[in-house]
Amino acid sequence: MANQTNGHLGVTEPISLSGPTETDFMRTQELETFLADAGLYPSHDDAVSREEVLGRLDQVVKSWIRRVSRSKGYNEQFVQEANAKIFTFGSYRLGVHGPGADIDTLCVGPRHATREEDFFGVLHSMLAEMPEVAELHPVPDAHVPVMKFKFMGVSIDLLYAKLALLVVPEDLDITQNSILENVDEQTARSLNGCRVTDLILRLVPNIQNFRTTLRCMRYWAKRRCVYSNVSGFLGGINWALLVARICQLYPNALPSTLVSRFFKVFAHWRWPNPVMLCQIEDIPSLGHTVWDPRRYYRDRFQHMPIITPAYPAMNSSFNVSTSTLRVMTEEFQRGDEVCKAMEENKADWKTLFEQYPFFESYKHYLQIDIMAENEDDFRQWHGWIESRLRILTLKIEKYTYNMLQVHPFPGDFCDKAKPHSCSFFMGLQKKQGSQPNEGENHFDMRGTVEEFKQLVHMYTTWKPGMEIHITHVKRKDIPRFVFPGGVRPQRPARPVRPSRSKLSDAATAMVGNVASASANGSSEKNQIQPPDLHLNANGDGLRVSEPDVGSSGIKDTDLFSKEAEDIAIKKLTGGSLPEVEVSDELDELHYLESLGSVKAPETTATTSAVAAPSDGNGEEAGEVQNQIFSKSSPLKRKASELEAVELVPTFYGANPSASENTQRKTLKYFKIVLSYISFLVLVLSWKYDFCL
């Protein structure tokens, strides 16, 4: 659960507790208007229709469990008391669903109702016979088994959890850990969705701000083609966890600021350091596997761990690959650049939500065409292929040694001239900055493609007519049916890749100057002054520049407001800081050290330019220093804040530096044990000689 003993939510303290400014209120209003104009809010009629569907579905599962109980031989009294219950989770439970969105539901049943025979057998047959149900598609082999269908026109994803209870009470509380006693892994994973959703709403400081921000980020992810868990990107629960973490770090910020800080934090996040809303809880008595790369080898190779807060803690983003992580990181960096431009009134919300030009971004693509004989076969074949496309991405990465990067498009395209068929696309490009050896300018993927085709043809319910064709196409040969209206747009200017900010460029230039001064043996490094804090021209004391008032999320009375926030974000994201980013932090620590507020690293020289002046104004200088050293001074408070920022928990294998430290400790202990054994051998040999 959340650690609230120190008055905050999350595993670390907030970066800022500042409230919103007038600019924040104005930008948040503009954001909400933009989302409403985009049609992201459901109508009243839509809400009423969904409530009716959920009530009808609850009646169906209650009728189903009575039929199952009767078939198991239970008496009529028990049959009438038998119960199954429907719970919701996902976007509908979080309150961020849009018109036409599906509803994630969970059916909780007693221990005598099995998943394979009763849920995917009896209940599937009942739904297939109902005229209100259409497009029924069971997926029993999925990581989380699910039954997909449309009920009265509303898309439903139905999971099943078999509890170790004889009768399911109507007031069942599934957030209690005791509900996981004596259940299988599939049930635990199915319950995790509802438990995580309820816990997220408890772990955010302001639910309304969380919902608006999450609705915004979901729409942005869909526009930028990074919203799809099955394709190797992030799904709804992943985005909810990331947004909830930002809400914890900025508990008093409005959605406009939360969106900006979302990109700022995750553009610099050192993956695979995990994102967690609370400490991981391990309950050995329940016996479920908890995400822990120190204990489980498979957890060490996950690229983007986003950990669920409910027991048992799981990595909700295990589908992310090296290529999809690269795509999302670039999009986070672009979002950060756009938000910085918005703060300077050089961009607007429309710029942030521009559609990603997928078919103009790459020169080469893979086209995966699938087809079947009829609509039912095509629906089953489509679901199977879509769930396995991630394996094709992993195989391409593996057999090209990550030299060829893959960008799967999260969705499909249908050619109206070809019924019962559709096409998936993957963008291909060579890894930037790589130096290929002789013969590596071309990649032969024929073996990889054939291996993947053999894998998908192992589908247990494969039928004649279910086919798949994979071909390589160039950008100019992309079929017209993928474009709106079937018209190929004129090729725009080459899309600009995300570039580093002006602040990063300035930091790079500053590091270059420091390196140059160090190489020449000069002492210019000691003359570097941190931003907004330097000596007056007369050298008679310190002058503090007033920070600009804006939507930075930092208190206006704090010194180094933006710089301190950057430092806090760098610390929070975990991992070792690169040389370019260390300079600003060290400069600030040098200055604070000269004031006696904090101790800088021993390898860095202190700032001599801030020494107390000795021109006869000793008393005035002493008063200034006393004010600086006092516990209530802004500098002292800022130093305490910098020292109080906690790092994200690091796990063996999840952070290279943590792994190296563990190896060094192991080597040290090994040497100690070896010395002790040598000493014992020496003593024993001496005693043996003495006895002789």
UniProtKB/TrEMBL annotation:
CDD domains: NT_PAP_TUTase (cd05402). The keyword Translocase does not apply. One of its GO terms (biological process) is RNA 3'-end processing. It holds the Pfam family PAP_RNA-bind. Keywords: ATP-binding, Magnesium, Metal-binding, mRNA processing, Nucleotide-binding, Nucleus, Transferase. Its cofactor is Mg(2+); Mn(2+). It is found in: Nucleus. Its EC number is 2.7.7.19. GO terms for molecular function: ATP binding; metal ion binding; poly(A) RNA polymerase activity; RNA binding. InterPro entries: NT_sf (IPR043519), NuclTrfase_I-like_C (IPR011068), PolA_pol_cen_dom (IPR007012), PolA_pol_NTPase (IPR048840), PolA_pol_RNA-bd_dom (IPR007010). Residues 1-21, 483-502, 518-556, 602-623 are annotated as: Disordered. Belongs to the poly(A) polymerase family. PANTHER family: POLY A POLYMERASE, POLYNUCLEOTIDE ADENYLYLTRANSFERASE. This is polynucleotide adenylyltransferase. The lineage of its organism: Eukaryota, Viridiplantae, Streptophyta, Embryophyta, Tracheophyta.
